[in-house]
Amino acid sequence: MGELKIEQLSKYFGNTKALDNININIKKNEFIAILGPSGCGKTTLLRSVAGFLEPTGGLIKFQGESFFENGRSLPVEERQLGMVFQHFALWPHMTVKQHVEYPLKSSQNKKRFDSVRRKEMMDHALKLVELDQFEKRYPHELSGGQKQRVALARAIVAEPRMLLMDEPLSALDAHLKQIMVHEIKRIHRLTRATTLYVTHDQSEAMALADRIIVMNKGKIEQFDTPHNLYHYPNTPFVANFVSKALLVDGNWEGEQFRPANSENTTWAGKGIADYFKRNQMYPVRPEELSIVPAQTNEKATGLRGTIKDKQFLGRETRYIVYALGKELEIISNQMQDGEVDQEVFVAKR
Question: Quick one: fold of 4-229?
Answer without folding.
Answer: Rossmann fold (3.40.50)
